[in-house]
Amino acid sequence: MARKYASYEGSADGTDGEDGGTGAQRGRTLWVDQPAGRRRMPDPVRTSAVRAVLIVAVTLTDATVSFFLTVTGSWLALPLSLCAIAGVVVATWGVLDVLITRQTWNQRHGVLSEPSSTARSRRRERRTARREARSAPPLPPRVPAHGEATGIWPPPTRTGPG
């Protein structure tokens, strides 16, 4: 939980009042617990996020040092530039790992979702339409037009007499 510093004042005689001394107990504490604004990330997601942040930090440092070595014309610029390019690839993998781990966690452990009122009303309309369609009298069989599929195979050719 997040903690916030609260003002703390000792008593006039130098005691803080919590040790049962002459000062009266104030009831104020140095730290005040406040509820966190968001829930804590699941452990696998947090682990991959920390890993990604460390990889990105090392890659940025590597790229910065590579830039300065290139500006100064040092021979270490080329190997460090190649390491920076490899670091970009690994950092991209790290960030994608966070996204995939988070999505996998959500799918495995179920995200609770409630349908909105719009979805509920549409579902109710579909249900009513299906109920009405079932209770309506069936349509009479339709005579197929010329050339339309009739379910008879092979289709009649109408080339003979008759």
Describe what this molecule looks like in 3D.
- This protein starts with a strand and ends in a 27-residue tail after the last helix.
- It is elongated.
- The protein is 51% helix and 5% strand.
- The chain has a two-stranded antiparallel ribbon.
- The protein is built from 3 helices and 2 strands.
- It has 162 residues and is mostly helical.
Order of strands across the widest beta sheet?
A: 1-2
Fraction of residues in β-strands: under 5%
Number of helices: 3
Taken in chain order, the helices and strands follow as: EEHHH
Q: What is the molecular shape?
A: elongated
Helix content: 40-55%
Any low-confidence stretches, pLDDT <50, length ≥5? Answer: none
Structural class: mainly alpha
Distance between the termini: 91 Å
Average residue pLDDT: 79
Largest sheet: 2 strands, antiparallel
Question: What is the CA-atom radius of gyration, in angstroms?
Answer: 37 Å
Beta-strand segment tally: 2
Topology:
Blueprint: E1 2-5, E2 31-34, H1 43-72, H2 77-109, H3 117-135
Helix pairs in contact: 1-2
Short description, anyone?
The protein is mostly helical.
What are the key terms here?
elongated, mainly alpha, 5% strand, 162 residues
